[in-house]
Design a protein that fits this description.
H-NS histone family protein, single chain, mainly alpha, 106 residues, 3 helices, 47% helix, two-stranded antiparallel ribbon
């Protein structure tokens, strides 16, 4: 029966052989790929699937994250609400006291 030290040495030797074989196979595969790329005139971008794109001219339009025009106004205080997000407290209070949202439309 082998001792622990002998088994560990064998494992280290086998792991080294595995790493060497992987390196060799990798370099062979890289050489094959480079040869095929040269033969067909391919670039790394072609392989990655990234085709060169032409950017369109900037078109004027609303900016993302910009302000939205208000749609509702509190006549008493001048406060406004765009109609997006939660209703402001002044509008909730007015609606609960019987007012209609159309009364605040701008």
């Amino acid at each position: 029966m082998s001792s622990l030290q002998e088994l560990l040495a064998q494992r280290a030797e086998i792991e080294k052989k595995i790493a060497d074989a992987q390196r060799e196979e990798r370099s062979t595969a890289i050489a094959k790929v480079r040869a095929l790329m040269a033969e067909h005139g391919l670039t790394a971008a072609d392989i990655a699937g990234k085709a060169p794109t032409v950017r369109a001219a900037a078109t004027p339009g609303p900016k993302a994250g910009g302000k939205v025009a208000p749609k509702f106004r509190n006549a008493a205080t001048g406060e406004t609400w765009s109609g997006r997000g939660l209703q402001p407290k002044w509008l909730k209070a007015a609606l609960s006291s019987g007012a209609k949202i159309e009364d605040f439309a701008i």
